[in-house]
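Q: Structure tokens for this one, please.
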Amino acid sequence: MNSLRLIMTALCLPLGTLLSLGGCATMAPEYSRPVAPVPTVWPGGAAYQKGEADKAAGKPVAEIPWRIFFVDSRLQNVIALALENNRDLRTAALNIERSRALYQIRYADLVPTVDAGAGASFQRVPETLSASGRSTTTEQYNVGLGVASYELDLFGRVRSLKDQALEQYLSTEQAQRSVQISLVSQVATAYLALAADRERLQLAKETLINQQESYKLTRSRFDAGVSSALDVNQAQTIVDTARVDIARYTTLVAQDENALALAVGSTVPADLLPRSLSETVTPLKDISPGLSSDVLLKRPDILQAEGLLKGANANIGAARAAFFPRITLVSSIGFGSDDLAGLFKPGSLAWKFAPQITLPLFDGGSNKANLAVVEVDRDIAMAQYEKTIQTAFREVADALAQRGTIDDQLAAQQSLADATAESYRLSQARFDKGVDSYLTVLDSQRSLYSARQNLISTRLVRLANLVTLYKVLGGGADR
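A: Here is the predicted structure, written as tokens:
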């Protein structure tokens, strides 16, 4: 036991000195965050009237939990189910584990690898090959600790690679958050689309029932000689239109359910599915983007792009260090003997210290070219970071433009639906009294049906706009 302590002491003292020498700064350029290539405030104008009237939000949207934003309990359960089962989110989580392991590998390169070893060898030399003319048998025993090919990181090459691996790991964490944001938005959008198509289907079915009654009445009037064949055929057209829409929306509802199941990653229980857009989906929580576009810098995809930029910047340090000498150390200390009983006796101590320095003299321009490559990689990463910010700004601006006008559009569409309903009632009354032809009634029916379908679409657009705005402002990353 005392001998083992002696080995550890003799090996650790020089290693501590070497590690202190290898703790220098890297040769990577000093990183500074690029200036965001977008305006500091959101766009203004007629389309952004509501956005301009908004005051700065007391709490960033990215910090509003999705359970607070999506207030409908069934939608909350569907989103929670997706966070547990979606395969894209699982893949993102596994990528984090992989990057963490890669970072640990790079971090381990900063410290020497110490191995313990023990061995024995036995050899017999026949008398025909022995110098003494007699056969001999030799035995050798050894035990000790050793450091194999440890690079003394005087110029920060290994540390730069470790920094790059760390930024890669942190970027995968942001990528996972970005995937979750997209998933929450995707599930909510698919849920709303299903609710809207189910309501459209229900409207088509109700219209078919009503128009079938109207067709029967028109047919009876024709048989009695009161109505013409033209009236009968015109009544048939609205019936067939409703039948076509029933078939179409039946298909869309099935496809919406399939899309929602794919996003969730499993079959959604029937009791969690919406019945219609107006009856079953509770209005979403309204949000404000605030006045400054600096909130974009908290979006996970922008943080991910910045992490990749930092990693590319760290790679420059490793490429620069390649121009300087590389010092590697091989050392070992232990005991050796030709007799197992004498392995730890005085005089059996053996050690080896073999430093090696490699100075690049001629490499055909490889190091220079490699430095140029990583510098261009850094410039590419910077351009991608700036493009990510510009894309995020455009997404928010588009959502704000729609938000600023959608309420007016919804109010106008509701007024149109109410007006067409009244027109249909009046035209039907005038037809019953023989004042107008059935063509006027038919036109009113078509207008009313179209107005109600468009009203459903407009309500869907408004709710989807809130979901989009929540997403593009970085909301939905929390568990």
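A few notes: The CA atoms of residues 85 and 266 lie 7 Å apart. Residues 6-22 have pLDDT under 50 and may be disordered.
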